[in-house]
Amino acid sequence: MNNEISNPKKEMPKGMGLNEKDYLNSLLGCLKEMARNYTIAMEEASNEKLYEVYKNIFLNIISLQREVFEFMFRNGWYKLEKTEEQKINNKFQTLSLEYQDLNA
User: Fold this and answer.
1) Helices (H), the chain
2) Chain centroid to CA 7
């Protein structure tokens, strides 16, 4: 049984030169790092107006990050793993209990 969810892979030229996949991998990594940094900036914002500016930028970054990921997935450069529904339910229950413990 195949446990992968994927699309047909768009082949890229091999060799020393950078190709579309290389550029998008780099862009995705940068966007992930920017999202982490803006999360920290929001946590440390000194006032509400500054927080809102950071938040709007953050939302734009994660939206673009998702678009890049989806483009790469459609081109077969990302694969997802199928999992059993029971494993998902078990993880959900575990996280729900942890969340409840945090709010106790």
Assistant:
1) 20-43, 48-74, 85-102
2) 18
Instruction: Report, as an integer, the average pLDDT of 8-22.
Output: 75
Residue 74 is assigned to a structural domain of this protein? yes
Q: Which domain holds residue 49?
A: 17-102
Supply 17's token pair: 């030169």
pTM: 0.68
Number of independent structural domains in the chain: 1
**Residue type at 77?**
W
How far apart CA 53 and CA 86 sit, in angstroms, is 41
Q: 15 — alpha (psi -120 to 50), left (phi > 0) or beta?
A: left
- Could you give the maximum distance between any two Cα atoms of the chain, in Å? 56
| Distance (Å, whole) CA 65 – CA 35 | 9
How far is 45 from 47, CA to CA, in rounded Å?
Answer: 6
Which pLDDT tens digit goes with each residue over 34-87? 999 999 999 999 999 999 999 999 999 999 999 999 999 999 888 888 888 888
